[in-house]
Write a structure and sequence with these properties.
single chain; mainly beta; globular
Amino acid sequence: MESREGHLLRQHRHSGVNVQVITDTHGNLQWISPILDGSIHDVKAFDTHEILGHLNARNIIADKGYIGRGLHTRPEPNPDEN
C-alpha cells in the first residue's frame, strides 16, 4: 500500500517519513521541518534543513544521534549507578 504522497507504508518494510521538530525547553512547538523520506538519517535531515543556520548550537538540546554537531546531548547513564 502506498500513501498518496508516495511513501511506502507496508508493515516491516516501510521507510515512513523524517520530520525534524524543534520545541523550547517547555515543550512549546517552535518549528516543524518539511517532510523527507524516512530512510534519511536524522543528522542528514538536520543538515539538509540547515538548522544551524537559523539557531545557535549552544541553545539546542538533542539526542545522541547528533553528537559531533556542537549541540548539547544527554550524557549516557552510568549502569553502575542506581
